[in-house]
Specification:
The protein has nine helices and three strands. By secondary structure, it is mostly helical. The chain has two domains: 215 residues, Up-down Bundle (Alpha-lytic protease prodomain-like); 75 residues, Cation efflux protein, cytoplasmic domain (Alpha-Beta Plaits), CATH 3.30.70. Helix 9 links the parallel strand 2 and strand 3. It is elongated, with a radius of gyration of 25 Å.
Length: 300
């Protein structure tokens, strides 16, 4: 796993841990429902980063008899677990707390404490967001953001970016709810803010789950890579036709390739073997993420 990805996750972990502590302290002092929801949000984010680090560590395990292609998909599994946690725990508790506050609204004490905490949290979260954004921009290359997310194979980059973006948006909603409750005296604004924060988490989690599901099931390599693999195979003079090129990401840095090709019937078996070995070598030299190549000789 790339060290840059780990740096992004660790930065987010440290930032969220600091933010969670300050938010809960502020909630105890002020009684703000929105601030309590934000504290829950940060605890979930901190737990998520721990799970991401666990997934990254387990994904580094070497292949064995039980898992001959390695453990690279562990990172996809734990990314999906993160999405479920954000949805079930983060969004669920925030929405529950919001409705509890609406049914029994209470005044916010010392709102200035909340404003200080929101500013500090914005600094911590903003720093983590900036680090994750830089890493994502570097990874996406010339692709636009949406395409880079859809085609990205390393969930640690876009998961942290999603979470940090949702966190900053949640802070703005919390500030708005507390401010409106204080200025208007209408106490339900604080509870409404808590519900909105929960909805933000729900939408974020749903998108994360959708994006990681394909990787977990077995997503192909980028179409440009698939086409390039086919073109390299076509350049092998012993190959008459490339019937099919199948690829699958077994991890962010592990592509499995299965090629169905039609060899020239006039060449001996020894030449087929040499052509296959040459093809495998060229593919691995061209694409560092191609780890295993299977060539099937098939006349179609």
């Amino acid at each position: 796993m790339a060290s840059g990805s780990k740096k992004v996750v660790i930065a987010a972990l440290i930032g969220n841990a600091l933010v969670a502590a300050t938010k809960f302290i502020a909630s105890l002092f002020t009684g703000s429902s929105a601030m309590l929801s934000e504290g829950i949000h940060s605890v979930i984010d901190t737990s998520d980063q721990l799970l991401m680090l666990l997934g990254m560590k387990r994904a580094e395990k070497p292949a064995d008899a039980n898992f001959p292609y390695g453990y690279g998909k562990e990172i996809y599994f734990w990314s999906f677990v993160v999405a479920l946690m954000v949805f079930l725990v983060g969004a669920g508790l925030s929405i529950f707390e919001g409705f509890r506050s609406l049914s029994n609204p209470s005044p916010i004490h010392n709102p200035f404490v909340n404003y200080i905490v929101i500013v500090l949290a914005a600094i911590f979260e903003g720093s983590s967001w900036y680090i994750s954004l830089k890493a994502f921009r570097k990874a996406k290359g010339n692709q636009n953001y949406l395409r880079a997310i859809r085609r990205g194979k390393d969930p640690t980059k876009f998961v942290v970016l999603f979470e940090d973006s949702a966190a900053l948006l949640g802070l703005f909603v919390a500030f708005l709810g507390i401010f409106l409750s204080e200025q208007t005296g209408i106490l339900i604004f604080d509870g409404i803010a808590s519900i909105v924060i929960g909805l933000i988490l729900g939408v974020t989690a749903s998108w994360l789950a959708y994006e990681t599901k394909g990787l977990l099931i077995g997503e192909s390599a980028d179409p440009q890579i698939v086409e390039a693999i086919s073109n390299i195979a076509r350049q092998i003079e012993e190959i008459v036709k490339v019937n099919e090129t199948l690829t699958m990401h077994m991890g962010p840095d592990y592509i499995l390739v299965n090629l169905s090709v039609d060899f020239d019937d006039s060449i001996p078996a020894s030449q087929v073997e040499k052509a296959t070995a040459r093809l495998v070598k060229e593919l691995k030299n061209k694409f560092s993420r191609v780890k295993r190549v299977f060539v099937e000789a098939e006349e179609v």
